[in-house]
Amino acid sequence: xxxxxxxxxxxxxxxxxxxFSALLEDSAEDLYEQAPCGYLSTLMDGTIxxxxxxxxxxxxxxxxxxxxxxxxxxxxxVGGKLYHETHFAPLLRMQGELGGIALEMRTGSGDRLxxxxxxxxxxxxxxxxxxxxxxxxxxxDRRAYEAQLLRRRQEAEQARAEAERQRExxxxxxxQAESDRARLTEALAALQxxxxxxSLPAVPDLESAVYYHTASPDRLGGDFYDLFPLxxxxxxFFLGDVCGKGPAAASxxxxxxxxxxAAALHDPEPATTLATLNTVLHEQYTAAGDPRYCTAVFGTIxxxxxxxxxxxxxxxxxxxxxxxxxxxxxxxxxxxxxxxLVGILPDAPFTTAQTTLAPGDTLLLYTDGLTEAxxxxxxxxxxxxxxxxxFATDHAPAGPQxxxxxxxxxxxxxxxxxxxxxxxxxxxxxxxxxxxxxxxxPATNPTNPAR
Amino acid sequence: MDIRRRxxxxxTGPEGGEGDGPVVVLAHGFGCDQNMWRLILPAxxxxxxxxxxxxxxxxxxxxxxxxxxxxxxxxxYAQDVVEVCDELGLEQAxxxxxxxxxxxxxxxxxxxxxxxxxxxxxxxSPRYIxxxxxxxxxxxxxxxxxxxxxxxxxxGWSAAMAPVxxxxxxxxxxxxxxxxxxxxxxxxxxxxxxxxxxxxxxxxSLKSVNLPTLVLECTQDVIAPRxxxxxxxxxxxxxxxxxLDATGHCPQLSAPEATVQAILAFLQEAR
Amino acid sequence: xxxxxxxxxDTAAGPVLRVTGDLDYEHAPALRRRVEELILVPGQCLVIDxxxxxxxxxSGITALLAALRHAQAKGADLALAAVxxxxxxxxxxxxxxxxxxxxA
Lengths: 451, 271, 104
What we know:
The complex is a heterotrimer. Chain B is an alpha/beta fold. Helix content of chain B is 36%, strand content 15%. Chain B has one domain (3-270): Alpha/Beta hydrolase fold, catalytic domain (Rossmann fold), CATH 3.40.50. Chain C contains 3 helices and 5 strands, in the order ββαβαβαβ. In chain C, helix 1 (28-37) packs parallel to helix 2.
């Protein structure tokens, strides 16, 4: 609202006049001395020529001890002096004025007084610098706040740096873990290949197929199988299951596989081969107080009375009976009762059996992962021998690949009921010579063990 | 690497054979930059080719060339000096160093004797911290206080430390083009330079100086008191000591005429 | 899967250890430890009552074989009592029905 000069309000006018007269009575000198900030005038060499009462009060110094006797820098802390000489003074000389510089003053009692200083140079008529006028603000509160800010910033910076270090360490660890895992995976794959062949060899006039499943995440299974030549016509095969899991089982599997291979070359009679294995395992483990054993079927296959027929001779040590799917649609177990686990007793009985494979017949070896798979809605009942027999009867006649494919589908249907390692090996004489297909290379086979 | 750009090298004064004296290299100290020499530059450049530069980390230098490792000791700054001299092909130049730069000049002359023929030390100190039998004027705690001041003026007040210097009608020699970087540096860099400066001890290096040397001291200098000036003079047999009637640590600003006269007289003599 | 529990009581002929639950890879070591803690004197017969056993795999068989060895080392006998039919079937497959003394 604008007040008009024509119609002053009488009462208000009197009040304003009183305020003005009080103000006018206040001298410029008093204003200087009692100002809410410190005033200071120095000669160009820094000698203090004038200081107001406010500043002297803050510093606790007597006027006569200061004026003409001290220089501006004498009022500063040593750090303040250094800063003044290296920054403040050169800037002021160059610019003629300077505002808001943070310095610390030293009071008469030795306390520190944080201040904000602004200075301006007064020049003479010839442009020569005459004196420096300085105002000083008490910055105690502000500086405390700034110090806090600064501390917080440093803390934040440290926390950030620490977090960065932690992150780098975590990344290093992760990289290391990933690299370790990659190396371990590679090592396990190499080890796994020493336990079971990556592919089955092609056997003349014989078809073969295999399925291999490991329940453990490190892929070190306890099941094993192999198929290898003994001489021009005769081949040996085995399939089994060692006790335990993981690396301990793997070392047992390795010993078992290479013992069987070596023993078979020495004397391929199935019961003899298993007996050799039994001796080796018993001495290595059970006799040393660490009972370990395996179940195994070991067999040989060789031409029968003509090249159309094959004679299979096998021995079992504690292993489920082999199954034969006949060309005429029957399925029959090749019973080997009474064969003992291999490795638990120094002298163990092994039961042998023999059969002939006619064209269209398929021999199936399997581990108990198949027959012990938990089935049913509550996963409490086992698949069992009878169900397997029925399943085989349903599918017979079937060549090795057909059998393995059907059983793979069956195993998948068990879902999480299949909680053990499972190995399946099928050998068969092709149904007719005319339709003999070369043995399916397992590398392109869906039941490839390397999967 | 472009040394001229890195160290913001400025050349002024008569070119070629026109100058009647040696090339003068002006080196600023801790705190500000080559503008420190502004008031004595015209008189010097009348007769001498003058080289100005900023140390990496100061003024308008290339901050990307700064590394804490190199600039944590005075040798790093001396390397700047030698590289600038090499770049310009200087021989027997007069090296004028202010404050800590006086000691940087000693180190540079030692590593490249052919480049530097004489020294002018403006308010020098070979050691700022007191030692047994030596008074530099400061304690390590004082230097910590300076660091705190650097921090305090960085937080919220950096604008004040980076003022745009306006044209001053009363002081036309200041010109309008002064950069706003005068005395303003990154606080982390300033802290490293402060450490290199105030924690240095160049007393041993002084003993090997055998160049014509002018030591300029002020009557009242908080940073380099007169007893330090006397110490430097005594340590260098080939030196002359001139005490300027000036207060503060920057006589080239507070007493430019006396400072430039002393330097010109020394140059005349050394010729 | 159910956890394995064992309880033991002494008879004139020797200790009877009753095992319930699953004797598998995870739990078999517990049975081995439990058996090794038993005090057996020569001539005694340790009876392991398997009537409450739900499942037994190769690890379980290993534990039972270890128990047999432990008993024999102490000069004692071992008998398995009330072997469930499904486990008995496995035993007959692997030939263990002729290694262990089986009680009804």
